[in-house]
Design brief:
By secondary structure, this protein is mainly α. It has 30 helices and no strands. This is TRAP transporter permease.
């Protein structure tokens, strides 16, 4: 029985205060907490943002300049804009005065100028870098020190404390290396050597992370914003409603499908949550879902959007650089695991709807699928064009260029149809202006974070701490594996050998590391940190790089719905006034598919399709076992299969879930037998009553 609390009352949601998505994003997503500017500063900042977007749009289509110049220019403009757009403490508008020219505090002017100058310094001395690296001049150390301090403050303002604290801890480790115990001891690096490595080499601030943001991610953030302005997001929601809304618990299924579609072009799980959740969460509560469950469904679904091709929260483009693989390979590998996540959420919302006896939406409440497509078909063209170009092997930034251009064309057509030629062109121009500004503004925290993550990566390459952590974790897992194996010797057959148990415990420990380090950190920065710190752990045990990267990426993203820092769940709960912590716990439970599947593709890499182990038989065994395992675990968690379950049945179904995802036919058959036996019992001897 489920005891409702004050946050889960189903009686009346019509009186709830309507909260705008922008308000929720600003409250829960540090990246959206823009300060209020006066008119003069607004015009100036908007103009610079627009020019930044124009620069990237042009270079995407007509060629990117020299790498160091491109990265330095992008970082210079971006960091300067961070100090214009994000205040130190309060978002309130500052009155102009001698202490605040144009309404911007003098300190922020100084920081913005310092950020621009120190970012452009390395491109300026580029021709001398070969002689400076390893033998920096005093001015190099001064400029690098200033940029490090500026980066810490820029990320603190735009994203909060978690990432700066991690970066500071890593720098302390590099500096005080001689003071650390055991395997973590190292000779240490004095400040000039540390700044030299982080500032003047390609292993630090100007490294791969910043390069990918400046070359790929910015363009896809801009594309996502422009595609949304054409009405693509609303089209996704309407299509999902028309297709799934009529089934039991319809609004929840609409939430899952629409969040998957919108998440495929979105770079933020919080933005995805509040955009679709503003419509789907009240609808879920209206038909009878508990409020915390409605919020959890949207949070789990929206977070799943970060692992959905083609954008994958922009991580797909980082993987290109880190793995050296074509984008088509990465996108193909991501399809089945992403499907498994949404399959798991859909199963749980369906079983919950059956358990609670909930209805679907009526015909009057549903949009007409044909009318939706006829009205909004134009907005899907840019996305189709983008995907076709990516699949044909075009560079991601060129595909983004044509995708953005197509969005601009669609805006013109839509505006002319609605307002006539002259007025329509004016409306379209305003739409492009606003879209470019919004896209550039949304990229600011991502760039600052990527540059700061470069510091973390620099420390890892300088000290080798990633492999030291890997050695410690695998050593601990090996000890546990030996102890458990000794306990299992009492059985007449071997369940798992020591190597398999070692890998299993290593995966568990790595998953915990990823979730802890991913708390409060956005998707792109999250992935970069996981690759530097967690992926080497799996590499020591022979896990393929592609498989290891997907594993740490999935568990890093899971932090968005893992209390106590489940930002997506907290944003969703605010829409409906639910208990935030309870919503976070439920969202984590709904994401069990995402939590199980990484273990499946580590032990059965055929699930990722593109690995050497792929055969049709191996894929079907892994995929079929995973789906049945998710079904079994979902039933155990929800306390419903074809009807209510006995306590012992929930326990054996949970055991069956782990047997089903194991990479051996014998364990899969045993799991199928258990699931089949419980299903047969419910058919032959159904248990009476609904478990409300």
């Amino acid at each position: 029985m489920q005891a409702p609390d004050d946050n889960d009352k189903k009686a009346d949601v019509s009186g709830l205060k309507q909260v705008q998505p922008q308000e929720l994003e600003a409250r829960f997503d540090p990246e959206q907490r823009f300060r209020k500017l006066g008119r003069a500063l607004t015009i100036f900042t908007s103009s610079v943002l627009f020019l930044l977007a124009c620069y990237h749009f042009y270079t995407a289509g007509f060629g990117i300049p020299r790498t160091t110049f491109h990265r330095g220019l992008h970082m210079a403009v971006t960091l300067a804009l961070v100090f214009f757009c994000f205040s130190a403490f309060s978002r309130r508008e500052t009155r102009p005065g001698w202490w605040a020219p144009m309404g911007l505090p003098l300190l922020d002017w100084v920081l913005a100028i310092a950020a621009a100058v120190t970012s452009l310094y390395v491109p300026w001395i580029y021709d001398q870098l070969a002689f400076r690296v390893g033998n920096p001049l005093p001015i190099d150390i001064v400029m690098g020190s200033i940029l490090i301090l500026v980066l810490l403050e820029a990320v603190r303002r735009s994203m909060g404390w978690p990432l700066p604290v991690i970066a500071i801890l890593f720098m302390c480790y590099a500096y005080f290396g001689r003071s650390f115990p055991g395997i973590f001891v190292h000779p240490g690096a004095d400040w000039p050597d540390l700044v030299n490595h982080l500032y003047l080499t390609s292993q630090g601030i100007y490294g791969t992370a910043l390069g990918v943001i400046a070359t790929y991610v910015f363009h896809f953030v801009l594309f996502g914003v422009m595609a949304t302005r054409t009405g693509l997001g609303q089209l996704f929601i309407d299509v999902a409603s028309a297709v799934t809304g009529r089934f039991a618990g319809g609004p929840a299924k609409v939430s899952v499908v629409s969040s998957a579609l919108l998440g495929s072009i979105s770079g933020s799980s919080i933005a995805n949550t509040v955009t679709t959740g503003a419509l789907t969460i009240p609808a879920m509560a209206r038909i009878g879902y508990p409020r915390h469950f409605a919020a959890a469904v949207e949070a789990a679904s929206s977070t799943g959007g970060q692992i959905t091709p083609p954008v994958m929260g922009a991580v797909a483009f980082l993987m290109i650089e880190y793995l050296g693989m074509p984008l088509t390979t990465i996108l193909l590998a991501a399809i089945v695991p992403a499907f498994m996540h949404f399959f798991g959420v859909l199963l749980q919302v369906h079983l919950e709807a059956r358990r609670l006896g909930l209805r679907g939406l009526t015909k009057e409440e549903l949009p007409n699928a044909w009318q939706v497509i006829r009205k909004g078909w134009l907005s899907i063209i840019p996305l189709i064009l983008l995907i076709v170009m990516l699949m044909r092997g075009r560079t991601p930034f060129l595909a983004a260029f044509w995708g953005i251009a197509a969005c601009m064309g669609v805006l013109v057509i839509q505006s002319v149809q609605a307002h006539g030629v002259m007025a329509g062109l004016k409306v379209a121009a305003i739409g492009v202006w606003e879209g470019f500004i919004q896209g550039a503004r949304q990229s600011l925290p991502i760039t600052a974070a990527a540059a700061l993550v470069g510091i973390i990566i620099g420390v890892v390459t300088l000290t080798g701490v990633g492999f030291k952590i890997a050695y410690m974790v695998t050593g601990l897992a090996s000890g546990w594996a030996s102890a458990v194996h000794d306990l299992l010797t009492v059985l007449p057959f071997e369940v798992m050998g020591i190597p398999t148990l070692t890998l299993l415990f290593t995966l568990m420990l790595t998953a915990v590391v990823c979730i802890l380090m991913g708390c409060g950190i956005p998707t792109t920065a999250n992935y970069i940190i996981m690759v530097a710190v967690a992926a080497p752990i799996l590499g020591l045990l022979g896990v393929q790089p592609l498989v290891a990267h997907f594993f740490v990426f999935y568990y890093g993203v899971l932090a968005d719905v893992t209390p106590p820092v489940a930002l997506a769940a907290y944003a969703a709960s605010s829409i409906i006034g639910a208990n935030a912590f309870k919503a976070g716990n439920t969202a984590f439970r709904l994401s069990m598919g995402k939590a199980l599947v990484p273990f499946v593709f580590v032990f059965s890499p055929a699930l990722l399709i593109v690995t050497p182990e792929f055969t049709v038989q191996a894929f079907l065994l892994a995929a079929g076992g995973a789906m049945l395992g998710i079904l079994s675990l979902s039933a155990a968690i929800t306390n419903w299969l074809r009807g209510p379950l006995y306590a012992i049945e929930r326990v054996v179904l949970a055991i069956a879930a782990f047997l089903l995802i194991a990479p051996h036919m014998t364990s899969t058959l045993i799991g199928i037998g258990i699931l089949g036996a419980v299903t047969l019992r419910q058919v032959v001897m159904p248990r009476k009553g609904k478990m409300r």
